[in-house]
Amino acid sequence: MIEKYIRDVPDFPKEGILFKDITPLLKSPEGLALAISGMAEAVDPDSFDLVCGIESRGFIFGTALAHKIGKGFIPIRKPGKLPWKTTSQSYDLEYGTDTLEIHEDACSGQRVLVVDDLLATGGTMAAGLELVRRVGGDPIACIVAIELAMLKGRERLGDVAVHTLMTV
Ligand code: AMP
Which among 1, 53, 161, 164 has the fewest CB atoms less than 10 Å away? Predict the structure, then answer.
């Protein structure tokens, strides 16, 4: 149970948002081990080839998980950060849009598990899954530490399996 390691911060980064702060979880050796072991147990490592993390908190969980289960890691990053040829995907935020990028040669023909810290409206994860598809990968599942169920993010992810460690 990772719940006790998550700190609720009201009105961050703006009024009305209850921010789920994972830094106490990361700081605690027990909490961090619980989170990474929990993710490793939630997925079937034979069902995918690579772990993909979404910048930036998806990198923390994604890389540790990939190492634990003996997989490689590929990053999805904010625009202008990846050095090789990229494909981009924009998605809607509450106000305006945001963009994510992946290397064109990141995962051609491979099955991919996509990782982030939190699923809210699902826009970020949906963009991540789409980027994997656009470069020829097969996003078979995704995993997050925290799901904000009332925002119904998983409804935007189609048939892709969604794993979570904690549901609010
Ligand atoms: P969404 O695209 O709406 O599913 O938002 C998910 C992304 O925004 C994740 O990368 C989270 O890190 C971040 N995020 C959204 N809402 C929160 C929240 N209440 N607490 C912490 N992070 C959040």
Answer: 1
